[in-house]
Structure prediction request, 584 residues.
Amino acid sequence: MLVIDSVSKTFNPGTVNEKKALDQVNLALEDGDFATIVGSNGAGKSTLFNAITGNFFVDEGRIVLGGEDITYCKEHVRSKVIGHLFQDPLKGTAPHMTIEENMALAYLRAATKRHAYFSRISAKEKKKFREQLALLDMGLKDRMKQPVGLLSGGQRQALTLLMATMVTPRILLLDEHTAALDPATADKVLALTEKIISDRHITCLMVTHNMHQALSLGNRTLMMDGGRIVFDVSGKAREKLTVDDLLEQFKMRAGKQLDNDRILLSK
Amino acid sequence: MSTIFSLSILQSALELGCIYALVALALFLSFSILNIADLSTDGCFTLGCAVGAMVTLSGHPVLALFAAMGAGVCSGFVTAFLQTRMGVPSILAGIIVNTGLYTVNIAVMGFSSNVNLFACDTVFSLAKEKLPYGWYEDWYKLLITLAIVMVIGVILSLFLNTRLGLSIRATGDNEHMVRASSINPLFMITVGLCVANALTALSGAILGQYQKSCDINLGTGMVTIALASLIIGETLVGKGSMFKKITGVILGSCLYRFIVALALRLNVPAEALKLVSAVIVAIAISFPYLREKSAFYRQRNRNRNACRKEESANVSH
Prediction:
């Protein structure tokens, strides 16, 4: 589904702030793969996501999604087939617009014809949105006319998840999307994420700082450091792996201890 | 009140309020919704007036309104092009276009600084001829301006609820979300500015026909005036649907004209009018903030008094 072929990216080249954020990254995800990514701060996890979404163009290499080379495809064009959830729940929705309007915007992805520009939200679509909101079980289905700014962070993130997957994306990118939520809400959003991904067989990449999640969720675990993927485990080998093994692997492959408190504390 | 306000003052305030409401609606689109301060408004208003005046002079007063809107779209497109494709910051793009428009406007008026339309038909004189005699004899100008602003208001509120309108609103509301959901923000900014400037130019064209003249300095300070109307409107109406907000902007524009009429009535010299406008704008913009502040102070004092009472009650025990 997704092929990343020796992709590199250097920020601020030729200055004192030069930073090699991605260094010859290679990655191939099969259709329906759900891979978790761990790594310390600045390892290049979010940069990898931004390279996939087209936030910037990469210096070298190419990115192929669903058989289509998207290396130099514009961000808004490729976002038609990419779902992206940010860590900050405020980033995924428009606060001054109603729940219904936000969902209608997400549903725009399904519209391919130009004349759809001047169409309005139909009663049929409203019903569809309502049914989808009911799945969240957060009492949102009766608040369709309320601005999203009134919702809590957890509700907004759940809504964003719904919006990102309303039209099934070729790949779903989850950038620590539960990290800013309280534990109970985080669990709920995570359960919802798992359900949607397995129901619709969505290919997914997820950044996490929780080592348990990194091993228990999905079918593959990647570890990044210094802009490279330093460890890639799946199948039988992954089943046997414990959190301690994972930390040990990191120490061995990155040549240093994990420097991230959040990772260590979540152990 | 009747001694200060005569019916004719009320009438002309409403007429002007409706005409200028179109500029306020343009700023509603660019400033409130797209979150862009479009400083080309002054020049674009004059451009609309100049183009409208020239087409009216050649005997097509109705066509003049559409021609003006067309000119406004072009002006908006240039502003948008500069900021979306040439990397010019949005405020600078507006200032650059505004400066350029001065020359364009003079050129449109045949390299003269004013044009008068006293000898030719306008939409107002046409309507006066067409309308049968009736009670509204003296109110035909208000009827026309009101009709135009109502039609534009309804169209705009319908437009803002189409998918294109929703995308424009989202562009001003949350850029991250827009980029992640397959909307091209550059295209949305372009469309938004074209529509906004078309409204500004339309307003200029109607004003030109209304006062039967066009002057190169007509648009000076238009941004401030429209902003005042917009903010008065938003303060009046507050949160709500797009239709409600648009109604608020139109009401705000009329109210602003009342305040100006009142100032004139109180013998404020005409030269001081811009200062009066500036003061009104400053008050209108700071009003919501001050209201919030005063609510906080009242709450604080109430709380303090309650605590003091409790303390003194404890002491007396």
